[in-house]
Design brief:
The protein has about 200 residues and is mainly α. About 80% of the residues lie in helices and about 0% in strands.
């Protein structure tokens, strides 16, 4: 009889171990899926940027430095997004992406602010449509980032809860990092200067 009780306890513990492990795997996969949704929106924005630059290129030929900065920031952010796609729970890669996105947002803001100073650009229907698409995409990125952070919170909560914390530590489930844009330049307003 005692042997059956011990066997039942071992089976229950083993079943719980499997359930806990699978639950952590599922939550980690939700983080990957949530980042994939962010990646879709970021790619949409990255695809809009060359059209925006081409639209303003003729009218703002003397602002070449700003146009080049936009393209360089886009390429850097795109490379950082690819790095995170490989491991969405890697905090260092996510921080690099957040920094690259912050820089991209800054130069895009500067480009749009400069474009506002050119009446011929403001009158172009294409420019207005691109600005609307960019604003819409920014909203989609924000919603996707919120879903990503929710998935990270769920994963980290389960990972740190007892007794799942024991399973997480034994099987190498590392904490995931939330996506924060807390760099000072992300909060600063865009400054427009026409001095050379």
């Amino acid at each position: 009889m005692a042997m059956w009780i011990v066997l039942a306890v071992v089976v229950i513990l083993f079943a719980y171990l499997i359930k806990s492990y699978n639950g952590l795997v599922e939550l980690r996969q939700r983080i990957a899926n949530a980042f994939a949704q962010i990646d879709v929106q970021l790619q949409r924005r990255y695809d809009l940027i060359p059209n925006l630059v081409d639209t303003v290129k003729g009218a703002m030929a003397h602002e070449r430095e700003t146009l080049e900065a936009v393209i360089a920031a886009r390429n850097q952010a795109q490379a950082a997004a690819r790095a995170v796609m490989g491991s969405p729970t890697d905090g260092a890669a996510l921080q690099q992406l957040a920094n690259a996105e912050s820089q991209l947002g800054g130069v895009l803001g500067r480009l749009v602010a400069l474009a506002e100073a050119y009446p011929e650009l403001k009158a172009q229907q294409n420019m207005g449509q691109l600005q609307e698409e960019l604003a819409s995409t920014e909203n989609r990125v924000a919603f996707a980032r919120q879903a990503f952070n929710d998935a990270v919170m769920s994963y980290n909560t389960q990972r740190e809860s007892f007794p799942d914390a024991l399973v997480a530590s034994q099987f190498g489930f590392k904490p995931a990092q939330m996506w924060r844009l807390d760099k000072p330049e992300a909060a600063e307003p865009v400054r427009v200067s026409f001095s050379r």
